[in-house]
Amino acid sequence: MRLACAATALVFLAAASACGSGAAKEPTEPGTGAAPAPSTAPAAPAVLPWATPATVKGKAGHPVKVTPAGVLYTRGGARVKPAGKWLAAISLRLEAAERADYLAPPADGGGFFWLAAGSEEPTPTSNGESVTAPWVGRVASLMARDLQPGAPESAVIEFDLPRSGGTLLLKTPSGQTARWTLPARTTGRGLDGVRAALAEFGITS
User: Fold this and answer.
1) For position 22, what pLDDT does the model report?
2) Is the dihedral of CA 73, 80, 125, 189 positive or negative?
3) 33 — alpha (psi -120 to 50), left (phi > 0) or beta?
4) pLDDT at 37
5) Is the predicted pLDDT of residue 12 greater than 50, yes or no?
6) Among 16, 50, 67, 156, which residue's Cβ finds the most Cβ atoms within 10 Å?
7) Residue 109 scores a pLDDT above 60
8) What are the φ and ψ backbone dihedral angles of 84, each rounded to 5 degrees?
9) Of 103, 4, 94, 17, whose CA–CA distance to 58 is shortest?
10) Left (φ > 0), alpha (ψ -120 to 50) or beta: where does 58 sit?
11) Are 173 and 110 in contact (CB under 8 A)?
12) Interatomic CA distance for residues 170 and 148, integer angstroms
């Protein structure tokens, strides 16, 4: 009888030892679990300060240096009025950086656009009544002709805008973009021809 009891006790101890042989797991403190996956939200596009040069690909893929030089806002006059609130003239300084090239027009997937604050809805140049602005045809405009290295040129683009300020956006056919913070007031250079044309219409900006 004693032998039977001893055998039973040994079986019980062996079973208990087997159950307790696994490594004990340490408790996990709250907040120490797996790290959350990094955010996949795209970064906001960089917006350059006004008059800062940017280099983008031209129509043929060669680098073109673009610098916004000035902006002028006018409400127009008796013979010329914007559909929105402002006619805006923006002067640009353009130069081929390495080889002859030019900025692709909207018909080829390029061009300049205006973005209202907090919006990604682009407004193209020559919208509204901007095509009737007094300076159109009297100052140099963007043209599909080659810029030459070492020979910077000036051009003026125009918008019909509901408000001043916002962002000036440049697109290229390759998907490259450049953005500048557009001043909310008239400033900068390269606008003498625009002012002369306005004066002929009796308009002071």
Assistant:
1) 45
2) negative
3) beta
4) 58
5) no
6) 156
7) yes
8) -95, -130
9) 103
10) beta
11) yes
12) 20
Instruction: Let me know how long the chain is.
Output: 205
> pLDDT at position 36, please?
56
Q: How far, in Å, CA of 194 to CA of 177, rounded? A: 27
User: Which CATH architecture describes the domain 54-198?
Assistant: Sandwich (2.60)
Q: Other CB atoms closer than 10 Å to residue 74's CB: what's the count?
A: 23
Residue-range domain boundaries for the chain: 54-198
- The letter for the amino acid at 67 is T
DSSP code of 48? B
Nearest CA to 138 among 119, 113, 114, 155?
155
Q: State CA 105 to chain mean position distance.
A: 18
Closest CA to 133 of 64, 75, 182, 174: 75
Locate 193 and state its tokens. 């021809």
Cβ atoms of 139 and 94 within 8 Å: the answer is no
